Amino acid sequence: MDKTALLQKHFAEGMTYEEYLDLADRLLAEGKTSGTNHTEAMLGYTKMNMHRMHRIDKSLTVKEALKDLVAKIDRPLSVLIIAELWCGDVAQNIPIVHKILATNPKISIRLTWRDEDPRLIEHYLTDGGKSIPKVIVFDPSTMEELVVWGPRPLPAQEMVKAYKQQDPVTKEPYSEFVKKVQLWYGRDRYETTQAEWLPILEKLQQVSKPTS
Fold it and tell me: Which of 9, 140, 153, 166 is most buried, by CB atoms within 10 Å?
């Protein structure tokens, strides 16, 4: 199955943001998370992530410039987000992306699991890795891919790249490094993700203008 067919399939079968959150609550009530690894550690990450997502949903105010650009998009667009419940970067970014885009009824947003069908993420690797989230914006009528964003804002991505390049013998445990990334998110207060979506929305607003 080629990339276009995979996009169509996963979007058609995908979850809304609200369904994603509801499913997270149901799985946690059963002692599960997404995927097949239901260890206490993965459940702990998932519980923390749900707390983060609900907090962002309640506290985030989208910048007016972003609201204005989203409102000017006058063509149907599809947005597919590749995610997993246990992923901290998903929890820190997807509520922001959703809140930015969801105000325009012409934009349809669906979420899909990374690991349920690994063929899709193979088309959206980051430096050879399967990092998530990945946000793919495409035209549903032509299947033209317009934007791919993710897995995290550039400063956080640079932190990850620098960590991976360190000497494996001397670098700190990954669990400690992740705490530093989450601290960066806390200090950034969603500013960088919103800033990175400003030129993306400008592009989408421009391509939605009539050509004649």
Answer: 153
